[in-house]
Amino acid sequence: MLRIISLFLLIAFISPAFSQNGASINRPTGATNGILAVHLDPSAMSNILSDPFRGQGLKTKDAFGEAEGNPFLFDDWKEGDVTLKNGEKYALKKMNLDASRDQFVYTVNDSLFEFSNNIKEVRIYGDDHKTDPSSDMVFRTDINPDAANFVQVLSSGKVTIFCEYSKKPEGENYSNGIVNNTRKYVLHPNYFSIVNSHSIPIKFSSSILENLTSDKKNELNNFIKANHLKVKNKTDFLKAVAYYNNISTAN
User: Fold this and answer.
1) Rounded average pLDDT over 20-46
2) Which residues form the signal peptide (predicted)?
3) 107 in a structural domain
């Protein structure tokens, strides 16, 4: 009888971290800086893709035939962490974005799995993660006002810039004995700003920057000149936007 009571008490305190079976049941604490490793039981989960889908040297097939490459955003698996909608945060060693389906996936024991819709944020650690967390790539589904898709947040504040990635097979498989063409996965990064609660496509240019930051034109021009920025360059454009957001918040 005591064993039965103990079992019910144990079950009452257990809830899964992810929607998949076999996920970790630990909870973040101050001792772990709010981040816990995920411990999964692959035997209790179903693969979404079969071997040898590992993201490199892969050939896939669709309705239009075979295509070289893969739908992943990154050539290598990336370390990072995921934050659930309930605020819990978990660390993962190998993650990637399937940019053909707008779906993050991760590997455990050479098996590939995907997250369900309980993810609030995915953070991919940059090379300087420990010393410079700003080198991380942050993906969220609550940024794009026109779609609940994963986008990379490039700047946030009065001016929010984000990138939407798409990777699909392009071209056709063709050979006439002399010329050989092969369908290949091609990655397209598309950049947007949020204007009047809608996502507007942008390009990195001085005119676009001026339109987005017109109320601080003089301050921004001085900042660009002092730092020798070339706003046609993505990095410099985003530096200027970050400065604008800072002075707008301060004011």
Assistant:
1) 43
2) 1-19
3) yes
